[in-house]
Amino acid sequence: MPEPSKSEYFVGVDFGGTKILAAVFDSSLKCLGRTKVSTKSERGSDAVIERVSRCVQDVVDECDLSLKQIRAVGIGAPGAVNPEVGEVIFAPNLEWEDVALKKELEKKLDLPVFLENDGNICTLGVYETELKGKPRHVVGIFLGTGIGGGIIIDGKLYSGFNRTAGEIGHMVIEVGGPKCGCGNRGCFEALASRTAIFRKIQAAVKDGQKTVLTEMLGEDLKDLRSGDLRKAIRKGDKFTEKIVEEAAEYTGIAVANLINVLNPEVVVLGGGVIDALEDEMMAIIVETAKDNAMSGTTKGIEIIASKVGDDAGIIGAAVLARRESK
Fold it and tell me: If you average pLDDT over residues 32-39, what whole number do you get?
């Protein structure tokens, strides 16, 4: 068999506040293998960039390939990103400001690296693979450690004047609400992200709230995961159910606002929280969105959960690498 040519492989990296996930894809976007490491953002940007580089090298090795066979690397990074210069302008969950991620990674890997905001990347991944690029206008909302989003208008990713459009997680939906990592109060992210949900649960437990979660994980709720919330709800834990319902209502309000402003054909929800709690959240999100959007504006609009789940980021990053390296 002939040696596969360099042009056949891409690496997609989904890089967030908690984990770095890298995967190798062939030219038809079939995933050949993946590797995951924790981000360890507290170690600072140099150490994290080293971890991203190592994760890419490991997954390429895992697939019995060499870096020479990779055409390009696509990466979705959290926060405000300038894709043209390849910089992370501001990422509150990482405590990064003005980090030259593209340049540093290209130095380490000796490969072309293309950078985009992670919410945009996830939206692109869902749009190209799941929605087959068909709808003209799409909004993606991804609930994970933070909340990312992406906007597609007329089939193209909309990035706005300063290239930072799509920061859906930082819409203020409760004036004077809880403090967000970005410094503002009452952001969508501070109300419905995994971090926000966990913080609410931990604070209530400290105040003496009884929950199945402490029986499952101990009083300090160490190692709490989104999937644990689903298990607690299925065991009849009304407290956990109420917290998750509140997050779903906030998400529904965010969806209603986006429908009023952008009127997309499809609103797609994804990320680890939706992945784990789709059955518990989606009906409430849809109902709240329809109740709060302007009368008549939701007609024919689909509000759906992504089926690619947490893989949207790596797929979208591979789509970016394939598109930009042509």
Answer: 95
Domains 6-123+312-324 and 134-307 are alike in CATH topology: yes
Q: What is the mean pLDDT of the chain?
A: 93
Mean pLDDT of 209-232: 92
Q: What is the pTM of this model?
A: 0.89
Report domain extents, the chain. 6-123+312-324, 134-307
Which of 201-217 are b and which e, b meaning 16 or more Cβ less than 10 Å from the residue's Cβ? beebbeeebebbbeeeb
The dihedral formed by the CA atoms of 237, 272, 222 and 216, expressed in degrees to the nearest 10: 30
**The domain 134-307: what is its CATH number?**
3.30.420.40
Q: Characterize 35-69 residue by residue with b for buried, 16 or more Cβ atoms within 10 angstroms of its Cβ, and e for exposed.
A: beeebebeeebeebbebbbebbbebbeebebebeb
The two tokens of residue 145 are 């450690």
pLDDT of 2 higher than 70 = no
Q: 172 near 182, Cβ under 8 Å? A: no
Tell me which of 3.40.630.40, 3.40.50.720, 3.30.420.40, 1.10.357.10 is the CATH number of domain 6-123+312-324.
3.30.420.40
